[in-house]
Design brief:
The structure is a single chain. The protein contains ten helices and twelve strands. α1 links the parallel β1 and β2. The protein folds into two domains: 131 residues, HUPs (Rossmann fold, 3-Layer(aba) Sandwich), CATH 3.40.50.620; 147 residues, 3-Layer(aba) Sandwich (Rossmann fold). Helices cover 43% and strands 23% of the residues. The chain starts with 6 loop residues before the first strand and ends with a strand. The chain is of the alpha/beta class and 278 residues long. The strands form two sheets. It has a ten-stranded mixed beta sheet with strand order 3-2-1-4-7-12-11-8-9-10, sandwiched between helices. The chain has a two-stranded antiparallel ribbon with strand order 5-6.
């Protein structure tokens, strides 16, 4: 099998999770075999360089590595350098920030998630000695990118042997409320919804087998409701430790942010470690 990722970057910082992110990157390099670029934004001096090398050397990396120094606004320079290098995976940490009763992700991570050209692995819960993801959820998208994302999830699953690998699909049927109004029968509408969800579940099964999954390797779930929102709620309620989501190449505009786009839910309230596949 050709390598899925050949060049990966890790945004390295001296944050509380910095050591854990390096440990995660080491494990993923052993799995995928990519060259790993350490991207550090900051002033280059002897003290900082010594601290950074010490931080990196605490981990064992199985493949080629390279340290890249950057200066400027973090999200902009990381996005620019990722494209210049030709990364096909960027790994970043995203510290959760509490605002009232909800959890939000910082603006640097959100900007990178929105604008970086390549797949992004956002680690909100990095582990220093992770022995594999135990509960992987894949939001199914029936296109080429969606198939690639599912194959990445499958490779991780066959390496990590998770307790659960679940393919989910969100559906929304705009015409159902009018059916209820016209027919006056909620039973008829419920029956129609169950039938459509059953058809969708069969499609998920065909999709999973089409990307190389065996029947007993994955579960399937159909979620009815607002796209994006239901996916996040499901991942959170199931205590997933990896969520895989496909992102369209279409850039989100100002209108998408006013009238919340499905991915905007993710950018604001990421529920767990997430692979955003572009």
């Amino acid at each position: 099998m050709d390598a899925i990722f050949k060049k990966a970057g890790l945004a390295v910082t001296f944050s509380p999770t910095g050591k854990k992110l390096l440990s995660e990157a080491s494990r993923l390099q052993a799995l995928f075999g990519f060259k790993l670029y350490f991207l550090h934004v900051g002033v280059r001096d002897s003290t900082t360089e010594q601290r950074l090398h010490h931080l990196i050397e605490e981990n064992t990396f199985s493949g080629e590595t390279e340290l890249v120094w950057l200066s400027g606004e973090p999200s902009k320079v990381i996005i620019k350098k990722s494209k210049e290098i030709g990364l096909d995976l960027l790994i970043i940490g995203a510290l959760e920030k509490e605002r009232g009763i909800k959890t939000f992700i910082g603006s640097v991570a959100r900007n990178i998630m929105r604008h970086c050209h390549c797949p992004i692995l956002v680690l909100t819960k990095p582990e220093g000695e992770r022995f594999g993801f135990k509960n992987i959820i894949v939001s199914v998208c029936y296109d080429k990118k969606g198939e690639e994302a599912a194959k990445v999830a499958l490779q991780i699953a066959r390496h990590d042997h998770p307790e659960k690998l679940t393919l989910i699909k969100e559906i929304n049927i705009p015409g159902l409320p009018s059916v209820v109004f016209d027919s006056g029968s909620t039973n008829e509408t419920d029956s129609m919804r169950k039938e459509l969800m059953g058809i969708e579940k069969q499609k998920i099964q065909f999709f999973g087998q089409g990307v190389g999954m065996e029947k007993d390797e994955f579960n399937s779930e159909v979620l009815y409701g607002v796209e994006g929102w239901e996916c996040l709620n499901y991942a959170q309620s199931e205590n997933a430790d990896l969520l895989v989501v496909t992102m369209s190449e279409k850039r989100l505009n100002f209108i998408d942010r006013i009238f919340t786009h499905d991915l905007e839910f993710l950018f604001e309230r990421i529920p767990t470690n997430t692979l955003l596949y572009k």
